Amino acid sequence: MADKPVPKPTPESKPYWDHANEGELWLQKCVTTGKHFFPPRNYSPFTIGGEIEWVKASGKATLYSYVINHRPAPGFEDDGLYAIAVVQLEEGPRLMTNIVGIEITPENLVLDMPLTVQFEARGEQQVPVFAPEGGSK
User: Does residue 77 have a pLDDT over 80?
Assistant: First the structure.
């Protein structure tokens, strides 16, 4: 079995991954508009020359979309079925992730279901994944 892929931080995303290693989800925010955004970048997508800052996210999200993967990518062979999902963070941005802590079936993966961030080790890096709020079904 191959190892799961490990993210390679860029200068813009390094704070995101550093905080993930501490078990925290952080996002960037435009200081001018107050809007959060993802993925990380060195400028605000909302204002020209707008100042940005890093802020701790709530870790709460809802399921926006998903696909159940039946043919595992290298490193995911032992996972069986897994969900590749897009979640809508409470702060507004959407991000791609995996759904964990639930049997991966269409009946269990209800759009708009409340989710909470968890972290999964990939080598030396922690990666945010999301589980149903309140535990497994």
Answer: no
